Amino acid sequence: MKIPHRLLPLLEDGLIDGVSRQLMSGKEAMVFVVHCGDEVRCAKVYKEANKRAFRQAVDYTENRKTKNTRQARAMAKGTRFGRQAQEQAWQSAEVDALYRLAAAGVRVPTPYNFHEGVLLMELVTNDEGEAAPRLNDLEFTPELARSLHDELITQVVRMLCAGVIHGDLSEYNILVGSDGPVIIDLPQAVDAAGNNHAARMLERDVANLRNYFGRYAPELLDTHYGKEIWALFEAGVLHPEVQLTGRFERVETPVDLESVMGEIEDARFEEAARRLRQQTMNGD
């Protein structure tokens, strides 16, 4: 096929030797099957911001930092240079997340290179060596649905232990390869410790898994893994081998109304005394 112009720099620099076909076109990127010597990989070409359906919502980009102070100022002001820097940060977020998660043992595609806005990474395949299907394209027995759900919950825990939340996890960005499910599409990944929306995003990711697999195994619809996982994370006791129950009960501490009213009265008394002292000092 004709080489897409965004892939020409990789061809010229010897990072790829040819392009076989377009694999998919999503809301944020196009993916191509490419040849690198004897290996077959995929190249993810990010769409320009004005052509991308997925916007850089502040919920996702909160707390993303750049070491370059000039870039940081420009991003804050929204200048043209700042928008370019923000776009680069958006793209590199997936690269950073992939390397971080792969090192933590999370099942994600192996990243190989990031060059001229193109991410070169592993092509996830099925048992026949073909490009792996998305979770959404398959049907499951109740037993297999429960097994895959458990495996993906384990991956979510591993991600959180590495400080990362996917932020947009669903049946549409999970591939089912020959060795099991593989999580993809991470440019919107968020920092678990530095994003105020982290808990909500984690719970939404887990709820998406619950609702999807609940179609095949309805008992999963009564589970609450998201809240359980986040509570363990907040308590500092979450680890990759944690045994989860899927149950969660929030302990509500009874309010001591008498004590609260007493504190309010004390505050009022202190404020009245402060004003009296101020009036005395002013000679009123």
Task: Tell me what you see in this structure.
The protein is an alpha+beta fold and 284 residues long. Helix content is 40%, strand content 16%. The strands form three sheets. It has a five-stranded antiparallel β-sheet with strand order 1-2-3-5-4. A hairpin with a 3-residue loop joins strand 1 (18-25) and strand 2 (29-36).
What does the secondary structure layout of this molecule look like, with pairings?
Blueprint: H1 8-12, E1 18-25, E2 29-36, E3 39-46, H2 58-61, H3 69-77, H4 80-103, E4 111-115, E5 118-122, H5 142-161, E6 164-165, E7 174-177, E8 180-183, E9 190-191, H6 198-213, H7 225-234, H8 257-281
Helix pairs in contact: 3-4, 5-6, 6-7
Rounded mean pLDDT is 84
Elements, N to C (H/E): HEEEHHHEEHEEEEHHH
Number of helical runs?
Answer: 8
- Unreliable stretches (pLDDT < 50, length at least 5) are 51-56
Radius of gyration in whole Å, from Cα?
25 Å
Distance between the termini: 90 Å
